[in-house]
C-alpha cells in the first residue's frame, strides 16, 4: 500500500500539466547504472548470506514529512505538486543514509484507479518520480544505490477481484514502464494480489516501446493473513507460473518478493515454500542452504520480503471508500521486525529485504546493523 486507488476518473488534468519535460541530455546523465546492478546480482548469487537492503514505505514517510494525505491520489500528491519534490528526494536520501542499497520511486499511486487516465500524463509523472529517485542516489555523478521503478496495482491495492482485463492492464502498464525507463535499474511491480496482475506487468514490459524497455523485473505479491495471495492462490503455484510466463515473454525476472502484508503472513508463506521442494529449482538459494538442483531447465529468481506495520486490512477495503489511514501496529518496533527478517534471511533464503507502509528509516538502520553482523 505505497498508495491506493480510487475510482474517480474525473479528477484533474490541469494539475498534471506543469511537470517539466526533461531534456534528453539530462536523461542520459542520470541513466541507470549497470555496473552497480551487476555487482549486486553477482554478490547475491555468490552466497545466500548476501542480502540487498531495500528501503521502507516511502508513502507513509512522505506524510510524516508534511505531504498531505488527501485520501484520493495519496502519495502521488508528492509528484503532481512540484513543491513536494524536495521532500520526496529527502525521504529517498533518508533511507540511503539508513543503509538502503536500493530505493523505490514514488510512482506507485500514478494509476488509472486514482484518476490518472491520460497515458502521456502518466508517462511524464512517472518520469518525474524516476528523475527524483535517480537524483537522490547520485553523488558527484556516481550512483550510491539502485533505483527500483515502482509499478502499483492499476485500480486498487489488495483487490484481485478488481483488476483490469489483460489487454487493458497491459496497455496501462506500458506508460509508467516507458516513463520510468531512463532512470531506473529495475522495475518493481508491487502489491500484486494475483498471478494475472503480475502477468499483465510482464506482458507490458515485453511490449512497451516495441520491447525496448529492457530493465530486469522484480515482482512482489501481497498476502492474506493465511499466507496465500490475496486472490487465494498458493505462493508455491504462483511462483512457477510467473517465472514461466516471463521466460515465454523474454522478460528478465530477477526476483519474487512479498510485501504490504503482515510479517506473520510472509512467515507462513515461507514455510509453504520450504515444504515444497519442487519449487527449489526456481530459486537461486532455496531454504536452509539446500541445493536448487542441477536438472533445472528454468530461470531462477532471488526471493525477497518487505512487510508493513499496518493492522490487518479488511478484504473489502478500497481507497475509494476509506475515510482514514489504516491504523499502525504498536508491536513492530525495529528490533521486533528484525526478528522476522532474521528468520526469513537465515532459514528461508530471503535475500531482498526491506519494509513497506510504516517501516521507516529507523527500521532500515536496525536491519542494516543486524544484517552486517549476521552475514559475517
Ligand atoms: Zn505498503
UniProtKB/TrEMBL annotation:
One of this protein's GO BP terms?
methylation
Q: Which domain of life is it from?
A: Eukaryota
Alphabetized UniProt keyword annotations? Metal-binding, Methyltransferase, Transferase, Zinc
The protein's matches in Gene3D superfamilies, at most eight in alphabetical order, are given as: Homocysteine-binding-like domain
Query: Which co-factors does it depend on?
Result: Zn(2+)
Residue sites binding Zn(2+) per the record: 260, 356-357
Question: Sorted alphabetically, which InterPro entries does this protein's record hold?
Answer: HCY_dom (IPR003726), HCY_dom_sf (IPR036589)
The answer on whether this UniProt entry bears the keyword Membrane reads no
Q: GO molecular function of the protein, one example?
A: methyltransferase activity
Q: Which Pfam families match?
A: S-methyl_trans (PF02574)
Q: Which positions fall inside the Hcy-binding domain?
A: 40-371
Supply the name of the protein. Hcy-binding domain-containing protein
Name the species this protein comes from.
Cyclotella atomus
